[in-house]
TrEMBL record:
Chain ranges of the DUF4190 domain: 47-107
Keyword vocabulary terms for this entry: Membrane, Transmembrane, Transmembrane helix
Protein's UniProt name: DUF4190 domain-containing protein
Region annotated Disordered, chain positions: 1-24
Pfam families membership: DUF4190
Lineage: superkingdom: Bacteria
Organism of origin: Streptosporangium algeriense
Annotated InterPro entries: DUF4190
Length: 127
């Protein structure tokens, strides 16, 4: 038995389909081979950053900037709720520091005024 050239087998393909054609480039350029990708990062609210800075500074400059920090903190919380920006934690920290700064400086002011009053009262009686 010989396995040489056997008659009746399959011959080379006749006609058929050619190699697949290219798709070309879509209008506007190519596509992102990695899918849609991550969404762009949301930015921090600028007023929240300013509220935090004013709250920190208010602890050192007699609470004057703390009042600005309170206003900016409340405005930034409203903006963050409306727009979905980042920075809610900074706004809350700015509010807490600002309220704390105002409270501390008010306590210092009251103690100072009481001390001045006591000294002025004792000086008038000549004790």
């Amino acid at each position: 038995m010989s396995y040489g050239n056997q008659p009746g087998g399959y011959g080379p393909p006749q006609g058929g389909y050619g190699p697949p054609g290219g798709y070309g480039t879509p209008p506007g350029g190519g596509y992102d081979p990695y899918g849609y990708g991550a969404p762009p990062p949301r930015g921090n609210n600028g007023m929240a950053i300013a509220a935090l800075i004013m709250g920190i500074a208010g602890l050192f400059v007699c609470g004057v900037t703390s009042i600005v920090g309170i206003v900016l903190g409340h405005i930034s919380l409203g903006q963050i709720k409306r727009t979905g920006e980042e920075g809610r934690g900074m706004a809350i920290a700015g509010l807490v520091l600002s309220y704390f700064g105002v409270a501390c400086w008010l306590i210092v002011l009251v103690i100072w005024l009481v001390a001045i009053g006591v000294l002025a009262g004792s000086a008038t009686y000549g004790y």
